[in-house]
Amino acid sequence: MSILELLGFGADGWGGVLLLAAAMTVAVTLTALLIGALLGALIASAKLSGLRILRVAGDCYTTVFRGVPELLVIYLFYFGGSTFVTTVGRWFGAQGFIGVPPFLIGALAVGLISGAYQAEVYRAAVLAVSRGELEAARAVGMPTLLMMRRILIPQVLRFALPGIGNVWQLSLKDSALISVTGLAELLRTSQVAAGSTHQYFVFFIVGGTLYLLMTMISNRVFNHAEARVGRTFRTNFARH
Question: Could you tell me which residue ranges the ABC transmembrane type-1 domain spans (predicted)?
Answer without folding.
Answer: 18-222
